[in-house]
Write a structure and sequence with these properties.
Layout: H1 5-20, H2 26-33, E1 46-54, H3 62-81, E2 86-94, H4 99-111, E3 116-119, H5 123-135, E4 139-142, E5 157-159, H6 164-179, E6 183-189, H7 193-208, E7 212-219, H8 227-236, E8 240-243, H9 247-259, E9 265-268, H10 273-279, E10 287-290, H11 299-312, H12 318-340, H13 347-355, E11 360-362, E12 365-369, E13 375-376, E14 380-385, E15 388-391
Parallel strand pairs: 1-2, 1-3, 3-4, 4-5, 6-7, 6-8, 8-9, 9-10
Antiparallel strand pairs: 10-14, 11-12, 12-13, 14-15
Helix pairs in contact: 1-2, 1-12, 3-12, 4-5, 6-7, 9-10, 12-13
């Protein structure tokens, strides 16, 4: 038996309190362990190998992968500080930001015997790699991919980013309520999975609101000169231009759009600090629909922001914050599982507990999974202002 009887009796009073009272509640938990009761706690650490499939190379993906890795590492360091008998070991694979790379990474990690795989950043990766994890009975959780309905691929597949059917629908309604726009244009990548899905859930609420979509322009992956499409949009002079694309592809659209005379407000489905820095003045005032903000005022988020800043000397990207929360969501499920049954260390048992996650306090807010394994929590609307991402007025969704 892995746990002694004395630890099992004490577990719910210490271990769960330490985890649930806060992702960053390390000091509280350690102080609980440092009592006269410490001699009554006997355990043999249980180690879990967790795979990371991250885009650490590739000109448009490496910075995303680095932010994710930092978020995972920060969470793991805080878990180590909890002095928990549940130990997390990472096995890292670079998937290069491609679907083929993710499939290869997931196959290798599954063959290595990991309990779960975290990462798989992009929707086109998740669409192809999730079935591999499912077939191998390995939990897979993507902190970033957001195309609609991907978690329904299988019982072992989950996502902690908000899907576009949630965040885009809510975001369009919120921005329209604030800005009152009447005419819109859309430009998207009609050869990229995420962009296609994101566009669907931007235009559907526009139709519901009676907004006139004056033009829908398309391009394909690898296109760099979008002058013709953007010039047509400039000619029609819509109130807003919706850009449901990967954040990396939005930079050229924003910059070239301003160059050809577009003065419309940009509204994007994804945007990070790196893209704002690269786009410069062209990004000022751009609005995006997100899963996390550094300004969200809850104790766990404030602690995360401070810890990230002190550890890495910079402000967190959303990709880091979502990855950080993801490891704690998995860790909580592992702890709950082994406390209930110390022999239940298999992926299927942990998956069953993970699927029941409900109103778990995280730096993202109160977090739940729906029956399909999709994330449920409050989305935000953000705006690029003075080179930073800040909450847009009225950004918290009804």
């Amino acid at each position: 038996m892995i746990f002694s009887k004395r630890f099992t009796q004490f577990s719910s009073a210490v271990l769960i309190i330490g985890v649930v009272t806060g992702l960053c509640g390390c000091d509280q938990f350690i102080s609980l362990l440092s009592t006269d009761n410490e001699e009554d706690i006997i355990w043999t650490p249980i180690e879990f190998d967790i795979g990371l499939s991250l885009p650490l190379t590739g000109t448009t993906t490496a910075s995303t992968g680095l932010a994710m890795q930092r978020g995972f590492n920060l969470a793991r360091d805080e878990i180590i500080a909890l002095n928990s008998p549940v130990r997390i070991n990472f096995i890292l694979k670079d998937d290069g930001g491609t679907a083929e790379g993710a499939v290869s990474a997931v196959e290798r990690l599954a063959n290595a015997g990991v309990t779960a795989i975290l990462g798989i950043a992009y929707s086109n990766q998740a669409r192809q790699a999730f079935p591999i994890a499912e077939a191998n009975g390995v939990i897979a959780i993507s902190p970033l991919s957001a195309a609609a309905r991907l978690s329904s691929i299988g019982e072992y597949t989950f996502r902690t980013a908000l899907a576009v059917d949630i965040k885009n629908t809510a975001g369009v309604k919120a921005t329209h309520a604030q800005l009152g726009y009447e005419r819109a244009a859309v430009i998207y990548n009609d050869a990229e999975f995420y962009s296609i899905s994101s566009k669907e859930y931007m235009t559907a609420p526009l139709g519901d609101l009676g907004i006139d979509v004056v033009t829908t322009q398309t391009y394909q992956t690898g296109d760099t000169d979008l002058t013709a499409q953007l010039t047509e949009i400039a000619r029609l002079n819509p109130d807003v231009l919706f850009i449901p694309t990967l954040a990396s592809e939005a930079v050229d659209i924003m910059v070239q759009g301003r160059q050809v005379g577009i003065r419309s407000r940009y509204i994007l489905s994804a945007l990070g600090m790196e893209e704002i820095e690269v786009a410069g003045d062209a990004a000022e005032g751009a609005i995006t629909f997100g899963s996390w903000s550094g300004e969200t005022d809850n104790p766990l988020n404030r602690a995360f922001v401070e810890n990230y800043r002190s550890t890495y000397g910079s402000e967190s990207e959303p990709w880091a914050a979502q990855s950080y929360a993801t490891l704690f969501i998995l860790f909580r499920a592992i702890v709950d599982t082994v406390v209930a049954d110390p022999t239940a260390t298999d992926a299927a048992s942990i998956r069953d507990t993970l699927a029941m996650t409900k109103d778990f306090d995280t730096n993202l807010g109160g977090f739940s999974f729906d029956p399909e394994g999709e994330a449920v929590y409050e989305p935000v609307v953000l705006m690029a202002k003075d080179g930073a991402l800040t909450l847009f007025d009225g950004s918290h969704m009804p």
